[in-house]
Amino acid sequence: LGNRPAVLVKLGRCYLRKGDYKSAHSYLTLAIEKEPDGSYASQAVASLASLYSRRYQYDKVVEVCRRIADKFPSTQAGATALYYVGNYLYIQGRREDALKAFEKFLNLYPTSMYRSSVLSMLADLYVAQGRFDKAETLLRSFLSKNPRNTDLARHLGDVYIRQGRYDEAIRILETGQQLNPNNTSLIEKLGEAYLMKGDKKKAIRTWMKILSVTSYDESYRRGRLASIFKSHEMYDMAVQQYLAALKRRPTDSYIYSQLADIYRILGDTEKAIDTYIKAILNIGVGYGVRERMIRKMMQIVPEGKEGKTLDRAIESVREAISAQPRNPGYRLALIELLFYRKEYTGALDELRKLTKIYIDQGSMIKRYAERLERMGKSEIALLYYRSIVELFPHGRFAAEASLATARIYMKIGRPDKGEQVLEDMISKGVRSPRIYELLGEIQMRSGRLERALATFRSLQSMTSGAGSTSARIKAAECLVLLGRYDEAKVELDRLKGQPGIPQNLLGKLMGDWFFWQGMFD
């Protein structure tokens, strides 16, 4: 199966996820060469583009894809590669080069699945250059062959609007809307044409048609309509639609943030803050956006009023908890506010209360503990991890929390406490290789090398493959440090040439073996 394009593409993607970009490039290129006109070749090109674009190496994307496009013309790989060439030239602002790439694409691949996208970007480039006639000719030519392509109709309408040719824009957009009455983008553009022509009432009537598009739920329709009103500074109508959307989707953080932004624009900071407070109260428990909403709220608070605003928010949340003490979302809102105010012990107290009404075996506490570690607050995170073990001693996160506790003890200079935690786990019958691995590491760092050696030997006996190899390497390191050089040499010789052994680490241990015996050369 090794030479099948499907397998080669999957191998390439695996290496890409591992961060082995050289191997990823090799396998993806091989997949293209094996079958350049197959669907997997297109996927391989897309993955190659992703390989470089995720590191912002846009020039490299262009270079690699241009080479593929030149090597495999008139194939799916060639079409996809040339599309990416134009795309990444476009992204970099290299408009003339992008324009040439897109023109070449349309000449070589007039029926490609990327055609509509290329047409849109090419028309944008013509318009940016003021070449409206070129954009119009291009779009009209393809629209005459594909009259039901309403995306092209919308784009042509936009070209007319930019030139002030509103009647022509309205004609082409109305025709497109008749062909596809559920296309909300067409409705939006048609309303814009009426507005630009000076007929605001007709624009509003046109946009209101979005509410009758049944292919989307009502909350989406009202939200879309509200965003149109907002973009044209019709704030009262936008607020009306956002509030209606919230009635149908009261946990939608995006709607709250848009509504708050309108109040901010209108200068009503108090109302904007109230909206954010409602948002952090009503967003569901499983949504991790409260932190972002609080940050947004605090950004609009006038200087010097941050403390009072947080007090007000916390008071509002406590009132909500008093009214509905078993609402987990309200409790989580309070936790997030306390966390923002750096009252971490208070937040932990509320998390412990949350466990009585929202049973997740400590998952929420673990999430906050990990956040604290990322913030460099390991000692506070320790309290959170210990709470998980205390509250859920047999829960699915207990072992992980204990390991994290031991790791933090080692980090903050209390290896004895870390060792005790791990020994307790072993005495309770928990037999995880990760426990022995961390225990041996702590013992090594504490200078208790004989005990560390015994721990790594135990780890060897309970694992196989990579786990066993790692334990043998650690055991060999202990032997070197103990001065048991003959035993260490036997162990190191056994490890030589074995697959999966990190050769740089093995070389380092061999260097140690010579060094500690005074053989410096």
CATH class annotation of the domain at 1-113: Mainly Alpha
- Oligomer designation: single chain
Q: Can you count the beta strands?
A: 0
| Assigned CATH superfamily of the domain at 1-113 | Tetratricopeptide repeat domain
Helix-strand makeup class: mainly alpha
Taking Cα atoms only, what radius of gyration do you get, to the nearest Å? 32 Å
Mean model confidence by pLDDT = 92
Largest sheet: none
CATH-derived architecture of the domain at 1-113: Alpha Horseshoe
Low-confidence stretches: none
- Work out the helicity level: over 70%
Separation, N- and C-terminal Cα atoms: 49 Å
- What order do the helices and strands follow? HHHHHHHHHHHHHHHHHHHHHHHHHHHHH
Number of helices: 29
CATH third-tier fold name of the domain at 1-113: Serine Threonine Protein Phosphatase 5, Tetratricopeptide repeat
Name the beta content range. Answer: under 5%
Quick tags:
Serine Threonine Protein Phosphatase 5, Tetratricopeptide repeat; 76% helix; mainly alpha; 521 residues; 0% strand
